[in-house]
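Quick one: co-fold with adenosine-5'-diphosphate.
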Amino acid sequence: MGESKGPLLSLRAVSVRYDGAVPALQPTMLDFHAGEFAVLLGPSGAGKSSLLRAVNGLAAASGEVIHAGIGELATSAAIRAARRRTGMVFQQHHLVRRQSALANVLQGRLGRYPAWRTLWPLPRRDRELALRCLERVGLFDKALARVDQLSGGEQQRVGIARALAQQPRLLLADEPVASLDPATSHRLMELLREIARTDSMLAIVSLHQVEIARRFGDRIIGLRAGRVVFDGRPEALDAGALALIYGEASQLPMLEQAAASPAPPPTLHDRLPQ
Ligand code: ADP
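Sure, here it is.
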């Protein structure tokens, strides 16, 4: 296909504006490559979700969002094709709580079929794939458990398995650990990173916790007020970069304290001026 060397995803002057006058995302240029584990870091309201939503056509964006092998997301066919190859993991899991883990993961296969086809049980190969995805996230033995009987961390792993069932090339995760305790958050990030590496996926994960971003990202994109203010390796995320992302340098001692403190962690954006 001739697409393997170039970026898997390119944003060209992409901006997102909702009803308000101030754009949620200012015109942004970014390239992402397969195998990259990129973290979008920034306080609440910085535009992380808007950027993720622009990537798979969930937010109306101006500029060009280009998926390798598909092209610009300018038609509904291109958006559908991009969504088929993109797994999404959300903070609130977005699972059907009264259904089994397996039934939820199978939803990840539905995008491959026309709507009428989903009135019948999906083929055996889809169910086998869904079970393998649950196995990868360590939940094979919970396949038939109802989601509302699982812990928060397990529910998020079901969310990851559902995304994997799409066999995505691109994994988008919007604050996937925001509602989890620190130990569970770390295990979950470990799992996401391991899966992304094994499958050579591009993963773009939004976070507001500096320490987790540093530990797991191999590229950090810092956002503030809808602008990319930092783009680099985690080692380069120094006090100056944090001040660009979070504001006043006087806040930085608090930031470091927050990053170093044991459970329960104060969330950084609770402590920082919005
Ligand atoms: P983050 O993910 O970093 O918290 P968002 O992308 O959610 O940031 O939000 C960026 C800005 O866009 C914020 O000012 C937010 O209030 C605004 N915003 C987000 N979603 C909507 C929406 N659906 N309608 C109007 N404004 C929105």
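If it helps, The first strand starts at residue 9 and ends at 16.
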